[in-house]
Design a protein that fits this description.
Elements lengths: L4 H17 L1 H19 L5 E4 L13 E6 L4 H12 L4 E3 L4 H7 L4 E5 L6 H27 L1
Antiparallel strand pairs: 1-2, 2-4, 3-4
Length: about 150
């Protein structure tokens, strides 16, 4: 087959870009994003965030959180957040079925950031999660009372 020349060139450009930014700077910024994301998500009523808090975690931590919100199915949440706000919220097993089984949950939602994201974008994403969860809870509380 044809060698992947374009992919090799792109990988080189990506490595140059990351090197110019500085991996230490990226790690520091992602740590700040992780702390901000955790703090903001922890404000959502009924949320269960899985894993240690950024303060409990030793070493670098990826700026992502897997979670469930009481009375809200992760798939419904992800769909509504995407459709209403354009925020990419993932729902499902996240290639971690054994972990979900150990946690006793069928699935979870996951919100992720990366070095190119900002605190403001996290705030907008969490606001979208809060809004969608509040809307979806009206249906779960209605069906529970019927």
């Amino acid at each position: 087959g044809t060698p992947a020349f374009a992919e090799a060139a792109a990988l080189g450009a990506a490595c140059d870009y990351l090197s110019a930014l500085g991996m230490d700077r990226i790690e520091e910024w992602e740590g700040q994003l992780a702390r901000h994301l955790w703090q903001r998500l922890s404000e959502v009523p009924g949320i269960q965030i899985y894993g240690p808090t950024p303060e409990q975690h030793q070493g670098p931590r990826a700026p992502l959180c897997s979670f469930n919100i009481e009375g809200v199915h992760p798939n419904d949440l992800a769909t509504l957040v995407d459709q209403e706000s354009g925020v990419a919220l993932r729902a499902g097993h996240h290639c971690a079925q054994p972990l979900h089984e150990a946690l006793g949950v069928p699935s979870s939602a996951r919100l992720s950031a990366h070095f190119y994201n900002t605190f403001e974008e996290i705030d907008l994403a969490v606001a979208a999660v809060k809004s969608a969860a509040a809307f979806l809870r009206t249906f779960s509380s209605t069906s529970a009372s019927n």
